[in-house]
Design goal:
Oligomer: single chain
Low-confidence stretches: 352-381
Strand content: 5-15%
Mean pLDDT: 80
Radius of gyration: 26 Å
Number of strands: 8
Amino acid sequence: MNDLTVQMPKMMMGKELEEAMLSLPIYDPAVCHADAAARLVALNDMMEVYVPSQMSCEIYSKIYLSMIHSLRKKQTVDAVRQGNQNFRRIQGLSYNSVLGGADSFSIIGPSGIGKSTALAKSIALSGGEQIIMTKEPYAQIIPCINVQCPHDCSVKGLLLAILSQVDVITGSGYQHNAVKNRASIDSLIGTVSQVALNNILLIVIDECQNICRNKNGVNLVASMTQLINSSGVSICMVGLPETEMFFGQEMQLARRSVGLSYTALPYDSYFIKFCEVLFSYQYVADRAKCTPELTELLYECSGGIIAILVSLIMEAQQIAILSGKEKLNKETILLAYKERLKNVQGFVYVDGQKKSQTSSVSSKKAVNGKGRLIISEEDTDGEFFMELTAKMGEMDTDIISFLNGYGIHAEEVAV
């Protein structure tokens, strides 16, 4: 077994892991003096910025250790016995599980917090793209297979997707043979179990929230359970928070989904550091500093969701360049939030702890009963408000209707 584990990359921890996961594209401050078109093209480099967090380190550790756990089961006596049982299953004979297992785990969190990016980096650092070769017996062991949960929770669709990935990597023809022979679901589970037993360490199933949204979800989970028990490989289930509620309904589901669960980022040192890193990538002519006021505003507008934060700063810079304002400041950030991020505003929430920490900003805002952020007219600076006032003079409408039409919450109060 030592000849197998030695082919795995060394496990990294602490500073070494953070440096390996860190992604900072090359930035030349001289780009701020280029023409608008060149700066808009260069602005896309911000999408490559990645600063590892505690979540990144935890996901890496979970992925690496699960691969090691599966690798230690390969080519053991129990694995040979399980292979014989899987063959009986493929033939339609009676069979039983030898390895058994509780080798599944979950990674659950809201959309946009960086789960997929952290997962991809973790798999790469764990040797996910390097096939482990064995001579006696000959085998090609794939560290990780990554598939998506079918939108209709089709058991056969998921199993064929796993075989397809194996075929692409190893040059085999498992999927073609299964389709050609019109294999039943039970036979397919036996085939995938045998292939996983011999050739796979970890199977990642993304978009697992589809299980909760389809009546076939229970059948798919049952099939995944059979796969775990008869293959000895680890299965990682990635999904949104609703997945956690589904797996918490029954004990047999709950114990197979023990793992990592995350929420949006709190307003802490990591969020502030990430904002500072993003502010170092400015493509406007007039560079601005990342002040505490702007950091608080960014948290209020993003709700701690990294994807929204990056989009907000990128869109604000686009507006600044295209409008000629040429500065990343409160005005352009609010314009980006109101004009370009309309569809995500209903999903931005700020918890009570954050509001108390940033009272200078939160005192100007109202939050409705659902926790949705409403930006009042006080969030806009004088210049922007004056522009709206000038436009109102050209239109035949009252000030309350006019401001509400621009997404500014305004109410008439009797004096």
